[in-house]
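Two quick folds needed for the group meeting slides. Do the first one here.
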Amino acid sequence: MTQKEWAAYFEEKIPASLSCEWDHDGVQCLPEPDHEVKTVLTTLDVTERTVDYAIKNGVDLIISHHPLLFRPLYSLSDDSESGRILTLLMRYGIALLSYHTRADKIEGGVADLLASRLGLCDVQSIDTEEGPLVRVGTLPSYTRLGDYAESVREALSADGILLATDDANRPVRRVAVSGGEGGDFVSAARRAGADLFVSGRIGYHRMLEAASGGMAMIEAGHYFTEREVVYFFAKLAEERDPDAKIVLYAPKLLSLLASPS
């Protein structure tokens, strides 16, 4: 399959109609449309480190969650990281496709992967003002909040989590989840009757509402709540071309330091 054919395939599987109005995902760079793709790399972020790895490993196509060209690029030069990355992609003929909010919303994407990882059953989609970016489900049985919070940290292999509640001993069963930045969806989770809302980042002031709002909240980290999207992209790629080499690349770039040295 060529770069152009891969782009058409992913645009069909993860359509632009799912993107939020403010988003800029989809085809980011297609330097050699007729070039045959033999190696595909799936990743959460496109950094200079990512592209360097792709160049060294003969990657023909990168599929990312976060778009490289999210903000306007006014100059294709070394003055910005985006400019440097795009120049490298074009120089080495590497295509870049990015699927951001559409991958958050789509069935089997970020929100569903997070719900599955956290052990939720009977998962349903919750519509927000920006579309189905939240899932809600139930735990097999009522669980002490403090214990479940620890299981969330373990399930996501997170360095740490933030738990906002007025009582860590309270029982929880109905849980709402949203990967990445979920601060705008607290009200939607509460309307869905969730005992707990889990997201990557919710925000200090919204977390303060937990004590008075009757719903506990957990910040588990943007990276940790979204990184499994690389498997989603890889699965779609394998379904289309079983002969292609698929490389999963999701290095943790940010860490919590308990005692900086």
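Then this one, please, same format:
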Amino acid sequence: MNDETPDKTRCPNCEKEFDSSFNYCPHCGQKNVEPDLKLKHFLSEYLSANFNIDSKFFVTLKTLIFEPAKLTKELLAGKREKYLTPIRLYLLISLVYFFTFSLGNDNNGGIILISHPGNQVTLADSIDDALITIDNIEDVDIDSLSYSEKILYTNLKLLDTPEGRLKFRQKIKKNLSLGMFILIPLTAFIFYILFRKRTKYYIPNLVFTIHLQSLIFLWFSVFSILELITDSPILKIAETAFIIFLMFKWIKSFYNTSTTVTILNLLLFSIAFLILLVLFFATIIGTSVLFLN
């Protein structure tokens, strides 16, 4: 800033003088700092303006990676000023995750389709393989179908076109991102049931689950980038083992349980979560097909 007097300074924005002890210009509101054109400052301003990312993000991210249980405990204890809110953290990391996931995602990835007649369920390695079953419904009398069957029939035929497949992939991505806001509270409820003696209320489990999912998304993003470099099966094994170990350490630390109790509850959680996940993806796929148009 250009000082007019020892106690006064001139705002470079509105060019009006004010007391140099003020943190912000009382006339226009611009922050009272020396102009800094360094790359670090430029990137910080850019990220803050476009993604609302500030120093809180990096402090939160560092704590999430190295002391995840501490992050949840401090937020629950009321120390919220220096950390991002759980939802904001999750949204930022999920953007990174879905971006990196899309980079390595095969557009013809395996899907489940239901075909007529006989309500046959087909699991295929690609959309092209799965759509072979659509040939079986070409001779179906559409007038004999119910309203819901007509919708399913029409959408399955649409999937036999490039436009239909593109719409299906777009629906899947949209429904997955929206569905996570349902999956996370349900996952938190599983933790609440398993650890209700440790946490009196549901909300601590919800905050814990949001942080856990954020950290898992973060590491999934890292592994997705590594998978672009190599498709070694060892990487998949390492990813699974690392996530299991991560969950074990965090559950044990946050709920303050013994090793035996942690392992037992982790097994019970895995079974319940697997059932929930199957229902979740079945709903996502079914909804994407039924509401393709």
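Slide caption for protein two: Strands lie at 2-5, 8-10, 17-19, 112-115, 120-123.
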